[in-house]
Design brief:
The complex is a heterodimer of chains A (109) and B (115). Chain A contains no helices and eleven strands. Chain B is built from no helices and eleven strands. Classes of the chains: A mainly beta (109), B mainly beta (115). Chains A and B meet through strand 5, strand 9 and strand 10 of A and strand 5 and strand 10 of B.
């Protein structure tokens, strides 16, 4: 069964609002990756976090890895219509990469 | 570079029919993977090949077989398709062998419907 839980499943925001998706694992992860999938497209790698408490930024996107390496979050500041898509976290544990269910983001202009 | 390519893009099968999904990468990657994507389920690993000549089961291997034909190509076969195999199938590759901390590059996907 699914071992990396991601919430929420859907998020609808007005353009300019912020957005956050959360990823949780019951066990410690070696690292975590984030991917974005545009509607009708394929997942594209965004970033990887490895260290406990790590924070990385890519323009309006902020990624965090929890201190216990069991959770992670992706925060988008001031969403734009180009941010539309599904965001997946993928946790690496015991040599395997486990994907969360994804959070589908829609942005109303 | 084309990256990861998959054929076909779309396919409709009848229950019991067989077919092979093809995947190729031109990035000289060691590892290749097959995932299926269903609504609300994320990406689930079917099979993977850590390096040429090796294949291993993932989370949902039942009803599928794979062949790592060479370093470039990794095919997925459905011997007797079932409606439960209706899904979008993604092939992916990564540079290093095994499950090292590296990026996975995905193909465009195959949308399969089994009637």
């Amino acid at each position: 069964g699914q071992q990396v839980m991601q919430i929420p499943q859907y998020q609808h925001v007005q353009e300019g609002e912020d957005f956050t998706t959360y990823c949780n694992s019951s066990t410690t992860l070696s690292n975590i990756q984030w991917y974005k999938q545009r509607p009708g497209g394929h997942p594209v790698f965004l970033i990887q976090l490895v260290k406990s408490g790590e924070v990385k930024k890519q323009k309006r996107l902020t990624f965090q890895f929890g201190e216990a390496k069991k959770n992670s979050s992706l925060h988008i500041t001031a969403t734009q219509t180009t941010d539309v898509g599904t965001y997946f976290c993928a946790g690496r544990r015991g040599g395997k990469l486990i994907f969360g269910q994804g959070t589908e983001l829609s942005v109303k202009p | 570079n084309a990256g990861v390519t998959q054929t076909p893009k779309f396919q409709v099968l009848k229950t019991g029919q067989s077919m092979t999904l093809q995947c190729a990468q031109d990035m000289n990657h060691n590892s290749m993977y097959w995932y299926r994507q269903d609504p609300g389920m994320g990406l689930r690993l079917i099979y993977y090949s850590a390096s040429e000549g090796t294949t291993d089961k993932g989370e949902v291997p039942n009803g599928y077989n794979v062949s790592r034909l060479n370093k470039r190509e990794f095919s997925l076969r459905l011997e007797s398709a079932a409606p439960s195999q209706t899904s979008v199938y993604f092939c992916a590759s990564s540079a290093r062998g095994g499950w090292d901390t590296d990026t996975q590059y995905f193909g465009p996907g195959t949308r399969l419907t089994v009637l």
